[in-house]
Task: inverse folding
């Protein structure tokens, strides 16, 4: 793939606040403790990225300098602050006014318990996180900063898990700011939700979304050598079961995969789109080829849907190393048994095999649309488990992210004549209420389906990017959602004035 960073290539700077009032001995103790905390975070399995202690800051100038350094260091994906002692918050204003990286306020203290016999005023002067973090919290609120507040003892697993989750969201922010999306052709004709303001989106999220002619892709496909195809076919045979005798169809998908990957890597792109309405010069709509590229971490969107393509890539990057998988998805049809309603998600061809319950099969079947040869694709069922579906939509003047909690189940039907990958799930709070809520919020038919990301992770990402967030969960009710959408509509319009 292109020069893509892994999570351990990112750093988070641990910055501790204090002041000169307490004298050099206290400052030495603070620095030593902060260094030990950062090293402990850095070595913890819940923490996916590097944590680097960057210093105990005591002046306006120190804070401003370290924020400037963070802004311009490509390795730094965010800052974590903690006030071990009392750090007067006015000294943070200049630095925070310049901050361009995600920010987490960790409210903790070095000692777990109050030492009954040893506590005296020296101890009180040194251990003032309950005091200092409240002063620090005020300036974040006063400046109306996007921030993550995590409260709890720094050695506890829930604190580290939440910190690690927030870091993944911050990495998603960095990925977003540098993302290029290649569109092979344009959108499917007359589809509304796949459209959007690409200029506004680049201003807000950083995405560079541009078009490459299908002819450019065809020329690259024709240049793929037989040796390249042979090598990839060996990989296919090692990873998947072959349930077809149409080997030429599979080999053509290999050509498409190789060609698309070359273009994406040459352009430094992490995501792409295509549409079955624009296949001029191609023998098949990419099916297996697109599934394979998603398996490698590229984002994909059908019918020219560049928003879901970009989000698929971002979520895959955020959730590196987490179990479950992430895939481009589409709501297709429902099973409406009263009280047991389920959704069936699939797509014509392109569902990522990272969500498969068992070894996928390569099959070749007619597509029915697109007027091309029968394409090869991977067929499988998704595995059971808690998941979310994510939709990013353009509301005109602002972007809205909608996340719904779902629970994937083993499909209740065999569906032997459905030749595509599929997942069945129960939507929260139930299918009827959940679908009602989804439609009221404007959620798209294309989504990112992920077992690996959480709603909290995506909410943190949305806040970092400065976009609206709607969560449909087990506690959602329609009347409350209507009020929430109305209030947010007014608030975001006022925010844009």
Result:
């Amino acid at each position: 793939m292109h020069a893509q960073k892994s999570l351990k290539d990112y750093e988070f700077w641990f910055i501790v606040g204090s002041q000169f009032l307490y004298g050099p001995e206290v400052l030495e103790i603070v620095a030593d403790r902060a260094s030990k905390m950062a090293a402990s975070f850095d070595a913890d399995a819940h923490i996916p990225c590097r944590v680097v202690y960057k210093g105990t800051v005591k002046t306006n100038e120190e804070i401003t300098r370290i924020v400037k350094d963070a802004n311009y260091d490509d390795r730094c994906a965010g800052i974590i602050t903690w006030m071990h002692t009392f750090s007067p918050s006015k000294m943070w204003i200049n630095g925070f006014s310049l901050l361009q990286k995600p920010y987490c306020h960790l409210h903790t203290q070095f000692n777990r318990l109050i030492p009954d016999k040893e506590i005296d005023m020296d101890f009180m002067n040194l251990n003032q996180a309950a005091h200092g973090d409240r002063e620090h919290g005020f300036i974040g609120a006063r400046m109306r900063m996007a921030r993550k507040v995590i409260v709890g003892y720094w050695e506890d697993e829930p604190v580290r898990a939440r910190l690690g989750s927030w870091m993944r969201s911050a990495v998603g922010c960095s990925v977003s700011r540098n993302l290029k999306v290649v569109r092979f052709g344009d959108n499917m004709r007359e589809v509304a939700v796949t459209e959007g303001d690409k200029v506004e989106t680049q201003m807000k999220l950083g995405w560079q979304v541009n078009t490459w002619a299908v002819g450019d892709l065809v020329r690259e496909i024709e240049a793929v050598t037989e040796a390249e195809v042979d090598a990839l076919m060996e990989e296919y045979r090692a990873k998947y079961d072959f349930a077809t005798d149409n080997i030429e169809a599979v080999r053509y998908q290999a050509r498409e995969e190789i060609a698309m990957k070359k273009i994406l890597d040459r352009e430094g792109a992490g995501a792409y789109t295509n549409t079955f309405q624009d296949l001029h010069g191609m023998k098949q709509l990419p099916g297996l080829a697109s599934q394979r590229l998603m398996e490698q971490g590229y984002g994909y969107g059908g019918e020219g849907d560049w928003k879901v393509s970009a989000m698929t890539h971002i979520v895959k990057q955020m959730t590196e190393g987490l179990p479950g998988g992430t895939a481009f998805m589409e709501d297709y049809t429902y099973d409406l048994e009263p009280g047991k309603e389920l959704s069936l998600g699939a797509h014509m061809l392109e569902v990522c095999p990272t969500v498969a319950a068992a070894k996928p099969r390569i099959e070749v079947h007619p597509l029915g649309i697109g007027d091309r040869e029968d394409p090869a694709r991977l067929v499988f069922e998704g595995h059971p488990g808690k998941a979310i579906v994510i939709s990013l939509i353009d509301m005109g003047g602002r972007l809205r992210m909608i996340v719904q909690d779902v629970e994937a189940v083993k499909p209740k039907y065999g569906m032997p004549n459905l030749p595509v990958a599929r997942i069945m799930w129960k939507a929260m709070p139930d299918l009827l209420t959940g679908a009602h809520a989804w439609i009221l919020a404007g959620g798209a038919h294309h989504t990112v389906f992920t077992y690996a990301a959480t709603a909290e992770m995506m909410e943190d990402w949305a806040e970092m990017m400065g976009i609206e967030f709607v969560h449909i969960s087990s506690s959602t009710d329609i009347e409350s959602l209507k009020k929430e959408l109305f209030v947010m509509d007014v608030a975001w319009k006022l925010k844009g004035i």
